[in-house]
Backbone:
């Protein structure tokens, strides 16, 4: 049958050809997008099939329209999907990231980006629109043949629906396979390009749309309204004292978030070599919070940043950085900005990772120095080596208008700790050589050395005593598989007792106050959520909507974890398991010994969730006035 005949045949009316062409055009564009991100990424047969299937399913949608609108329907589908591909391309050029519907609400940031959009366009982008003249011609032709097109009847609609569902089968299979190989990646969306490379860029957008739609459908479920949120803050007990308030007011604030830094490495040696001599010195001469626990959930590094900078809990599902970048926040940066500080975040990875490029403006960072801005002269693992990162960051801070708040996030000590081992110095690891723990110790030793060089640089430039320097670990790096090696290293029989393992996962939190005016060890239970209020106190600001406490003016520690468990200075309670542990002995005790803690913990989480889900910070701020 010739094309002419096909076009003329009644059943295969031109509309099916048009649907096929639309699918072909759309599929080709998204495949090109995949190829742009990484050559060969659309080569996996199932990914290819899933991409084609989804394109066909979307191209079927106009067939449900009344016949006079169908031609326009195909153009509509092709037009918006082409816009989507183009937005992705521009977003990749600007953020090294893909577009997400979740970032649609970031109107405030649009003006900043708008100027660059024109600059980001490239002549070859015109190729994306090459199919349009052909489709327009065919659509017009279809319109002329209106009467020959079958009207939308139930049988026909059913057939189209069945075909569409069939086309989506490879999508379902691909997503299922991805979820098995990379659990949690779809709900946290920490690296959108990585997801799109695996399942296909068009399918990534479909997942993005479906997850957003299902959240909206399920609604905002905390059951806690604004009045209750305001009430919770009003009823909050006042601080016990105001010691050291504003002791570093007007000074710079430099916060270092160190990748996978755990506290067991401090004050330990291996083969006669001190693992973290620089952190040890800082801890000795500064404020050292020795009982600090990470509170991160699905968002790892991003959750740590979020906890510290906003004093809110991580999102109950998904990740605050990728889900709520459109919200308004009170943060360390917003509080200091109000006092005339310049605010900047520095990190040697792609700006789109963890949605940072979108989240930082919402956290009131004026500037984000990413691998786009650094000279990427040496790479370890995921990005710029810590050595180069600190060397260049020092240079940037030196030129920075003061006072400033600089938030630095390191990268080289990232799991699995073996990515570029030849680039970092060895340690006399003995029988730990080649193990994950051994590699971890090497990475941490390397990170410590770079921190030492950075601190020496700050001193040389006259910045050290003009700044508060805070350092903490974002989350543990070692896994359960490392337990036997770690027990041997620590010289304990085993770490299978939950309390022993919980403690082995503690992170450091160290603060150096200008001229080392404050020193001391603090053993109250500390969480990352306490870091913002504690630094705020030293800087003379108040983070009114933070859930943590200023540790310099607190009598007792209280740390709530995202899963609803919590600990104080005595016990660790896991309500879901109906068990509690004495933190000193590791023995179990009944959770009912902590009745207040349980309701306090629940309340904190639900009020924080209500703020996040309802974007309540503006109303809360108004209520404080
Ligand atoms: C990526 C880095 C690592 O930029 O922050 O993130 P993580 O995998 O630890 O969340
Ligand atoms: Mn991390």
Residues:
């Amino acid at each position: 049958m010739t094309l002419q005949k096909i076009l003329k045949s009644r059943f295969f009316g031109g509309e099916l050809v048009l649907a096929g062409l639309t699918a072909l055009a759309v599929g080709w564009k998204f495949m090109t997008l995949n190829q742009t991100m990484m050559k060969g990424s659309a080569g996996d047969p199932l990914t290819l099939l899933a991409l084609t299937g989804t394109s066909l399913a979307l191209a079927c949608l106009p067939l449900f329209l009344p016949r006079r609108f169908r031609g326009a329907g195909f153009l509509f589908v092709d037009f918006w999907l082409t816009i989507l591909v183009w937005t992705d391309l521009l977003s990749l050029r600007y953020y090294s990231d893909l577009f997400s519907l979740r970032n649609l609400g970031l109107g405030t940031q649009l003006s900043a980006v708008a100027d660059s959009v024109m600059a980001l366009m490239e002549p070859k982008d015109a190729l994306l629109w090459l199919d349009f003249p052909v489709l327009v011609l065919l659509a017009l032709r279809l319109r002329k043949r209106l009467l020959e097109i079958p009207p939308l009847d139930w049988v026909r609609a059913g057939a189209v629906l069945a075909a569409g569902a069939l086309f989506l089968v490879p999508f379902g299979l691909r997503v299922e396979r991805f979820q098995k190989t990379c659990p949690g990646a779809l709900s946290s969306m920490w690296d959108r390009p990585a997801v799109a490379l695996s399942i296909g860029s068009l399918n990534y957008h479909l997942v993005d749309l479906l997850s957003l739609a299902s959240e909206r459908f399920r609604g905002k479920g905390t059951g806690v309204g604004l009045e209750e949120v305001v009430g919770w803050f009003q009823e909050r007990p006042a601080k016990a004292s105001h010691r050291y308030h504003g002791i570093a007011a007007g000074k710079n604030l430099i916060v270092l978030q160190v990748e996978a830094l755990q506290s067991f490495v401090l004050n330990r040696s291996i083969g006669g070599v001190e693992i973290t001599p620089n952190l040890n010195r800082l801890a000795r001469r500064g404020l050292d919070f020795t009982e600090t626990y990470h509170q991160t959930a699905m968002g790892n590094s991003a959750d740590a940043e979020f906890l510290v900078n906003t004093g809110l809990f991580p999102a109950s599902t998904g990740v605050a950085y990728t889900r709520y970048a459109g919200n308004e926040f009170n943060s360390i940066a917003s509080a200091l900005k109000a006092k005339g500080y310049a605010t900047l975040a520095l990190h040697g990875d792609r700006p789109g990772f963890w949605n940072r490029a979108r989240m930082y403006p919402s956290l009131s960072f004026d500037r984000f120095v990413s691998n786009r801005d650094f000279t990427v002269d040496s790479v370890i693992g995921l990005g710029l080596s810590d050595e180069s990162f600190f060397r260049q960051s020092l240079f940037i801070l030196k030129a920075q208008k003061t006072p400033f708040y600089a938030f630095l996030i390191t990268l080289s000590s990232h799991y699995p700790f073996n990515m570029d081992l030849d680039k970092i110095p060895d340690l006399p690891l003995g029988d730990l050589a080649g193990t994950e723990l051994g590699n971890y110790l090497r990475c941490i030793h390397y990170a410590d050395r770079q921190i030492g060089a950075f601190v020496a640089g700050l001193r040389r430039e006259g910045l050290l005593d003009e700044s508060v320097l805070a350092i903490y670990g974002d989350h543990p790096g070692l896994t359960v598989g490392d337990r036997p090696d770690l027990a041997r290293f620590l010289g304990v029989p085993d770490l299978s007792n939950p309390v022993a393992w919980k403690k082995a996962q503690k992170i450091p939190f160290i603060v150096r106050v200008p001229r080392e005016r404050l020193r001391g060890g603090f053993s109250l239970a500390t969480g990352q959520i306490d870091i913002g209020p504690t630094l705020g106190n030293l800087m003379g600001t108040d983070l009114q909507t933070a859930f943590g406490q200023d540790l310099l003016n607190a009598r007792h520690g209280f740390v709530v974890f995202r899963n609803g468990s919590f600990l104080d200075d005595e016990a660790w309670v896991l309500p879901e398991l109906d068990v509690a542990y004495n933190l000193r002995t590791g023995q179990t005790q009944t959770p009912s010994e902590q009745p207040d803690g349980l309701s306090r913990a629940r309340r904190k989480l639900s009020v924080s969730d209500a703020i996040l889900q309802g974007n309540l910070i503006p109303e809360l701020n108004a209520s404080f006035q």
User: Anything to note?
Assistant: The chain is about 50% helix and 10% strand. The mean pLDDT is 91. Residues 331 and 363 are 6 Å apart (CA to CA).
